[in-house]
Amino acid sequence: MKKELSVKTIVAIGIGSAVFVILGRFAVIPVFTNTNLETSYPFLALMSVVYGPVAGALIGLIGHTLKDFTTYGSAWWSWIVCSGIIGLIYGFAGRKINLRQGVFDKKDMITFNVYQVIGNAIVWGLIAPTLDVLIYSEPVNKVYTQGLISASLNIVAVGIIGTLLMKAYAATQIKQGSLKKD
């Protein structure tokens, strides 16, 4: 069965990609060679959980591509692909919770953060540097150091900022069984 994206999800992908670019360009703290503490990934986590894995993957891919072109003038495809993969992972983790029901309790926080820690460790600590070596023939020590730093920074950023964003989003939703109507 083919499931099409809703207009709401398509708009979220466009807006999400634009916000990803803005955060990726202007809300970063440089830490190591071309490696930053990013606020775009906690935002990607929120969008992926709310709109699903396909939207998360597309926001990561489109947002990172546009960020690279507007920042460096060219794209670094290995990390762009990884931004899509991590958006996909966040989206699948979001299937274990439902922020739209207005609940994001400790169990949900732990569940999401277990997924994001494992996802970030694999994507940024293993896949991104391996692709850098295979595609760009980058020095192994440099890219694996970058990958481990990025994985650690993203784990912390998504764990703190992402969790706070999701908690705030859930608080804006009408809880299931509530008598309050729109």
Automatic annotation (TrEMBL):
Membrane topology per record: Multi-pass membrane protein
Source organism, top-level taxon: Bacteria
Keywords on record: Cell membrane, Membrane, Transmembrane, Transmembrane helix
One Pfam match: ECF-ribofla_trS
Cellular compartments per GO CC: plasma membrane
Entry keyword annotation includes Membrane: yes
InterPro entries: ECF_substrate-spec-like, UPF0397
Entry-linked Gene3D superfamilies: 1.10.1760.20
Membrane-spanning residues: 6-28, 40-63, 75-93, 114-136, 148-170
Location of this chain's protein in the cell: Cell membrane
HAMAP family given in the database record: UPF0397
Family: Belongs to the UPF0397 family.
Name of the protein this chain belongs to: UPF0397 protein K8V42_09015
Organism: Enterococcus aquimarinus
